[in-house]
Design brief:
Radius of gyration: 22 Å
Distance between the termini: 25 Å
Strand content: 15-25%
Number of strands: 10
Structural class: alpha/beta
Length: 342
């Protein structure tokens, strides 16, 4: 993976001065180079750079204070990555563009990063394998996943998506699906184990402009008007209050933004409550569209994916699409510069 391209835009004197001071030290420059490749914990960075945790933490704080590095907490862990947007990102791109990627020290860091990634992927695969039978059992009850994914893409195909939020991201499959067409994607999930799977999947696919975070679906850590599209894929049936979740999703939509819900139509498969923790056995069209209306959204599309007769499949997948009725402003390069999820 190459470092980000440097922008030609002029930057404030104080930002450049503080950024160069922060980056102008051997360990901190190595940290920036390796964090440009992956999102990592202090423990990961300790293994890669071969330095103590207090030393690594002190350097990371200096880089974060200068706006070159971002941090976010996930349960008891804290993840770090290079600045994703804004002027800190622009300065960082210029600094990294001066480095020779084949420098022996940086190459050695990348080799040790590869070992960290391998261990992370193995842990994620072990968790996924332990639960694969449960997911496969549900998949066997409805149309193939490929058909669902094709319908999801078609539902959102009428206009471009620059920023995408995937609520209850799970394996991050929705982010993978839309990654080629978006500028930035964020996936939220409460489960650290699932986030481990999602992060490993994104890394394996080489997707750097999408990230995952631990968060409550009822309290999205983003301001209003942050995303062009929000997807809630096979999540509502786990929730106590679907209407509240959709209202929170609507809050972060930009004017003209779209909210896509994918879930099951009403069914009578009671075993899904006990075996798979489903709170609700599907949703009627009118119920979800009523939640849209309460959230101030306008329903614009509804479709169902019905299994073929005689296939033995019993679940109908429904897709509901709503739109924020406010008129969208003309897009500009700075529209989302300061709207990163915390």
């Amino acid at each position: 993976m190459s470092y980000p391209d440097a922008s030609a835009a002029a930057l404030p004197f104080s930002l450049v001065l503080d950024g160069l001071k922060a980056a102008g030290e051997s360990t901190r420059l190595r940290l920036l180079a390796v964090l440009a490749e992956a999102e990592l914990t202090v423990s990961d960075l300790t293994d890669i750079l071969g330095q103590s945790q207090p030393r690594i933490s002190r350097h990371l704080k200096l880089l974060a204070d200068a706006g070159l590095v971002e941090r976010h907490r996930e349960a008891s862990w804290i993840f770090y990555r290079t600045a994703g947007e804004g002027q800190g990102r622009q300065l960082l791109a210029r600094i990294l563009s001066l480095l020779d990627r084949e420098d022996p020290m940086l190459a050695g860091d990348r080799e040790r990063l590869s070992a960290v990634r391998t261990a992370r992927a193995a842990a994620a695969q072990a968790y996924f394998a332990a639960h694969a039978d449960r997911w496969d059992e549900i998949r066997r009850l409805h149309v193939p996943e490929a058909a669902v994914e094709a319908a999801v893409r078609e539902a959102l195909s009428d206009k471009p998506i620059r920023t995408l939020l995937d609520l209850g991201t799970g394996t991050a499959r929705m982010l993978e699906l839309f990654a080629p067409d978006i500028e930035r994607g964020v996936g939220l999930d409460l489960s650290p184990d699932m986030l481990g799977v999602a992060r490993a999947n994104l890394e394996r696919a080489g997707i750097r402009h999408c990230t995952v975070r631990q968060s409550d679906i009822y309290a999205i850590p983003a301001p209003r008007d942050s995303f062009d599209a929000v997807i809630v894929h096979q999540v509502l049936h786990f929730l106590e209050d679907g209407g509240r979740a959709l209202a929170e999703a609507a809050r972060v939509l930009r004017p003209g933004g779209r909210l896509l819900v994918v879930d099951f139509a009403p069914h009578d498969l009671e075993f899904l409550r006990d075996a798979h923790a489903h709170r609700r056995l599907g949703f009627a069209r009118e119920q979800v569209e009523g939640w849209f209306a309460q959230a101030g959204l306008k329903p614009v599309d509804f479709r169902t994916l019905v299994p073929e007769s005689g296939s033995g499949k019993k679940l109908v997948v429904s897709l509901w699409l709503a739109e924020d009725p406010r008129i969208a402003d003309a897009p500009s390069a700075s529209t989302h510069a300061d709207r990163e999820v915390a």
